[in-house]
Amino acid sequence: QETIDKIAAGEVVERPASVAKELIENSIDAGATAISVEIKGGGIEYLRITDNGSGIDKDQIQIAFLRHSTSKISSAVDLDNVRSLGFRGEALSSISAVSKVELITKTKDSLLGASYIIEGAKEISLTDIGAPDGTTFIVRQLFYNTPARKKFLKSGSTEGSYVFDVVEHLALSHPEISFKFLLNGKEKLMTSGNGSLSDTIYQIYGRQIASNVLDIDYSDDKVSINGFIGQSIIARGNRAFEHFFVNQRYIKSNNLSRACEEGYYGFLMGHQYPFFVINIAFTDSAVDVNVHPTKQEVRFENESQICELLTKIVNQRLRKRED
Ligand code: ADP
Ligand code: MG
């Protein structure tokens, strides 16, 4: 079992950012309205996620760390109706196979919380402990027992910036959740969770970007496209401020990016880059969001149509402002 978990971990757990993504998505699935993320040493040495979600019953903790023991699918039929972000039931088993995990959790129906310690898939302890409602995961020394994999990690600061990206993207796709990110003890991000995307953009990127955005809001019978477009003068690489979410999942797509950039044609100065947060939601199942659960790719049946539409929407909105 230990070996299987270690191998499986390679699928889900590539780096601290993937640990953060899996744990934050679990917090979202648990109904959290506030999620705080803290890392030290790029998240390799220390990564903490605290949420105010449902918590885990003490007698369910060990089960949650078993492979494919997700609480989110009760039968094969359910597979068709999976709405939650995580449903493969292998994140906790994979993470705990290659790190030292400390879990503190409490449901609101229980008087006491529980503390669970598991290192390299070996259970160390399960004890009662006083705790607030919700769940904290602390993941220490990622890949301490798989040195070959540890070698593939980049520097702490690079790995830390990948974790930051994950938090940023999840904060943008969930304006209804308050996110906080601490890097080596310094607060790097804080959103209010008041549900407003434009407030969230302001809280993450500041006034300079937020005061210049234009809203877009389009829908037909197949797709809705909404969000904000603007520009950035901060040189952070061409596409670093381009954010696409398909059915609330952050994705990367050269084709979509190119389509949007085309819409900006003539509207950017030489030193400006596009800034946008664009949510695309399909009303039918033309989009396959599960091509690969840990990758940021999606497949469209009608991608070229969506691209044309995007170019048009972006361009029309920029023109409208000019009037
Ligand atoms: P999955 O998310 O695919 O179900 P995971 O291995 O990520 O599998 O999690 C296993 C189970 O542990 C979840 O189904 C859930 O019941 C429980 N769990 C994990 N994280 C949390 C959390 N932050 N709050 C409440 N329950 C959690
Ligand atoms: Mg999960």
From TrEMBL:
Q: Name one GO molecular function term.
A: mismatched DNA binding
DNA repair: is it a keyword of this entry?
yes
What keywords would UniProt list here?
DNA damage, DNA repair
Report the GO terms under cellular component.
mismatch repair complex
The organism's place on the tree of life at top rank: Bacteria
Report domain DNA mismatch repair protein S5 positions: 201-319
Swiss-Prot/TrEMBL GO biological process terms: mismatch repair
Per the record, the similarity remark reads: Belongs to the DNA mismatch repair MutL/HexB family.
Q: Any idea what job this protein has?
A: This protein is involved in the repair of mismatches in DNA. It is required for dam-dependent methyl-directed DNA mismatch repair. May act as a 'molecular matchmaker', a protein that promotes the formation of a stable complex between two or more DNA-binding proteins in an ATP-dependent manner without itself being part of a final effector complex.
Please state what the protein is called. Answer: DNA mismatch repair protein MutL
